[in-house]
Amino acid sequence: MTGNSNIILITVDSLRYDTIFSDEAVSAPTIEQLIEEGLTFKRAYANGTSTGMSFPSIFSGMYPWDYYGSYYSPDRPHLIEEFKNTNYGTAAFHSNPHLSASFGYDRGFDIFSEGSDSPSTVSKLRKKAGNNIPKDSILYDVLRKAWKNLEKATGTGVGTPYVDGTELNEYVFDWLESASAPVFGWVHYMDVHHPYLPHKNTVSHDIGEKEAIRLRQKFIHSPDDLVNSEIEILRQLYRGEVEYFDRCLNSLLSKVQSELGFDNTVLILVSDHGEAFGENDNYGHGGDALGDEVTRVPLIIRGPNIEPSKVESPVSCVDIYPTITDIRGESAPSKCRGKSLLAVDENERQEKDEKQYVFAHANAPSDGQAMICDGRRKLIHDRGENTDTLYDLCDGQEKERINYRADHVKDLVDEIETHISSIKSSDDSAIQPDIDDEMKNKLRDLGYID
Ligand SMILES: [Zn+2]
């Protein structure tokens, strides 16, 4: 790496690993090409089961329970601060309320675009404020306040609460057209996240919008009442969203190529968690379920001097921060818990039979669930119940193992105990952001809170 590479971090909300890596993979030619040309981690895990739990790991290189997970605590290392005092321009584009400035995600970004509820004057105003006006000008402040108030007044539209990938791309394209290298850009797509809407020219094209909305309500509010045929339609809608996202990704990559070129640009594609459709009696994501359908994610890195390869060793999202510092020829802060993914030597690990463990957390540290996985076995420790559940992972299937001998999994038990004792803070009430009524309403509309 040159130390001055452009870095584009592309995150996809709720993208399951097996929609990409399995016999039943969705038709996603852009992602397929990235897999062929990139360093692909076939067994990558998110460290949390929801956006709020997972993203602190991506942006801080620490686990969700470190400083408690549902908020991007200022005590965590901060990826964007790595770009302070450098010549990098930094920009973020997303529309997930869990990643909003209210939760601290805007820290350090030159441009932080949180999307809009409709492609209205609000977003146009914001784009102008963000891109064309010096940030220290009074006009910038006035415009910022204006679009914040306007946004407040517009509320959240039921059915399409997020910015669609095509519209999100427009914001990114505007930025790319005026950006000067090197840049760090973060683009977070919500299309694959529910509500799943039918899209033309995808597997979901003949499902009616009304039906999609009806099933969305059931999926969120009474999933246990879903019958198999409805689950199949939801899966089909979900797969259609993945196909649609793949097209948005294609447009983004074309624009990155034309504006920045690929000779000095690193792309990182990852998801923050998967999505359940009844596996382990779970629907959606979040909560206490740590099954592969929710924790396993696609993770691909493509760039100059990065040898295309497919890695089977387990890795996780805490490794993304040290990877980005490694790309820049820097070291990650000592607080970071992950390792650079560019340093993974699959052959060496196999020769040494070296064990690699990954961890994930669900719910609060005091009585939540911690997962350890070595790629073949997964142990889930419930801190509230003080129980362990063991799963074998083989042929893409997760199977609970009953009556196992504790001494056969001693390494997992020892490692997870060491991991839990290393958690930086277990105080559940330690840090909670102030969520105002507007944010509460938004989260309620999206089905996050009752
Ligand atoms: Zn998410």
Automatic annotation (TrEMBL):
Species of provenance: Halomicrobium mukohataei (strain ATCC 700874 / DSM 12286 / JCM 9738 / NCIMB 13541)
Pfam families reported in the protein's UniProt record: Sulfatase
InterPro entries tied to this protein: Alkaline_phosphatase_core_sf (IPR017850), GAG_Ulvan_Degrading_Sulfatases (IPR052701), Sulfatase_N (IPR000917)
Top-level taxon of the source organism: Archaea
Domain Sulfatase N-terminal, residue spans: 5-326
Name this protein carries in UniProt: Sulfatase
Lineage: Archaea, Methanobacteriati, Methanobacteriota, Stenosarchaea group, Halobacteria
